[in-house]
Amino acid sequence: MVDLRRWPGSRWRGLTLSGAVSLCLLSAVALVLGWANKARCTGPGFDVWGRSTPDYQERAYRDACYSDIQNLWIGRDIDRHVFPYVHGGITPDGSLYGGVVEYPVLSGLLMWLGALFVETDAGFLLASALLMAPFGLAVTWWLGRLSGWRALLWAIGPPVVLYAFHNWDLPVVACAVAAVFVVHRWRVPLRRRALVAAVLLGLGAALKLYPAMFVLPLALYVLTGGRDGAELPARSRFDVAGALGAVGAAVGTVVVVNLPFAIAGFGGWLASFEFQSRRQVDLSTNSVWYWGFRHWTGDEEFQSAMGVISPALVLLSFAVACLAGWWLLRRTGTFPWVQVSAAMLCGFLLLHKVHSPQYTLWLLPFFVLLGVRWGWIAAYLVADVAMGISIFHWLYLNMAGEPSGIHDGFTAQALMIGVWGRAALLVGLFVAFLSARAVIDDRTRRSDARGAVNHRSW
C-alpha cells in the first residue's frame, strides 16, 4: 500500500491530507451559512416577475440579508433568460437593456447560467450559489496548501458568511489565488509558471477587473528572476522576454475571452464599460469619496473631478507599491510580488470611487498568504462587520423615515466606525503588507526540500 503521507507534496506544514479535507468541510459549512444568510430575504411568496414578496426591499435592508444576486434578478433581463451583451446597449440616461450587465463578460455568463433553469429570485440565488461554491472550496484548498491552517481565515472567516453570495466574486478570487498557487507550488521553470499565472489573472480580469493589477508585480517578479534571482537566464541581469511574455499572456487572455462578445454585439459589450465609466459617486458606491464629500455629490463639477482624481490616485498608489517592492528587491534579492499585489489592492480599495462590501473577499486571501500581525486582521474584520451590517440597517431607517443621524443611535455610529475604521486600516495595511513576510515563501522552500527527500525514499 502506498503511504500517502510520503507522497511528494501531500503533507503541508501542520496540514495533512485529512486536515485539508477537514478545512474544506469547514469551508463548505461557512458557504452554506453564507447562502442561508442571503436566503432569509427570499420568499415566501413571489410576484408575477418572480420577485420575493412581501416587502422584499424593506426586509433586505432591515434584516441585512440584501444581495446583488437577488436584487439584479429584475432589471437586467436576467429573469427573461436573455443571453448577455449580444442584443443590448445603454440608454442616454445610463440604463442598461437587452441583457447587458455592468460586469465583465465572464461574470455576465455566470449570471446567465445561474438564471437558465429558474423562475424566481430565490431560485436564482440558490443556482448562483451552487455555481460559485466550488470556487470558494478551491480557494480554501489552494490557500491551505500554500499556508496551512492560516487558511481558516478564509474558510470560516466572517466575510465568507457575509459576502460569499452577495455578488459574483468567488470565481474571481479563485483566479487570483490560483495564480499565486501556480507561481509558488508548481515545479516547472518560472517562465512557464508565470505564463499560466498570467492566463489565470487574465481570466480573473474577465470576471472582475481587479486581478489585472497583479500582472505588473508578477511581471516584475519574472523580470528579476524570481526568488533570489535564481531563475534568470544565463549571463542576464533581467529576464525581459519572460516578463513581456507574462504581460502578453494576460492581455491575450482578456482579448480572446472578450472578442466573441464584441463581435456578436459590440454595442452591448461596450455598454458594460460605458456604464462603469459613467458611474457617479453616490450612496451605492459606499466609498470614502461619498462619505467624506456626500454633500457635494449632486454637483456636476465634483463628479467630473472624481472621474480624474480617483483613478489618478489609484495609479499613484500602484506606482508607490511597485517602487517600494523594487527597493525591497535591492535589499533582499527578491521582488515581493505578492506583498506588492496586496498593497496595490489596498490602494485600490481605499481610493477607487466604488467600494462595495464584498470587496473584502478580495483582500482576505492576503491575510492568509502574508504574515501581517493578527491585530491588523482582527481590527479589519471587526470594522468590516460593523460596516457590512449597519449599512443596510441604516438604509432601512432612511426608507422608513426614522432618525438615522450620528446622534440618533448606534446604527449610524457603527457605520461610521466601519467606513472610516476600514479606511484607516487600509492605509496601515498598505505599509504592513509591504513589510510582511510571505508565509508561502519559507513553506515552499521546505516543501521543495521535503519533496526531493520523499522522491528518493519512495
TrEMBL record:
Keywords: Cell membrane, Membrane, Transferase, Transmembrane, Transmembrane helix. The chain crosses the membrane at residues 12-36, 96-117, 124-143, 163-183, 195-223, 243-270, 304-328, 334-351, 363-396, 416-440. It comes from Saccharopolyspora cebuensis. It is found in: Cell membrane. This is Glycosyltransferase 87 family protein. Its main location: membrane. InterPro entries: GT87, UCP010361. It is a multi-pass membrane protein. Belongs to the glycosyltransferase 87 family.
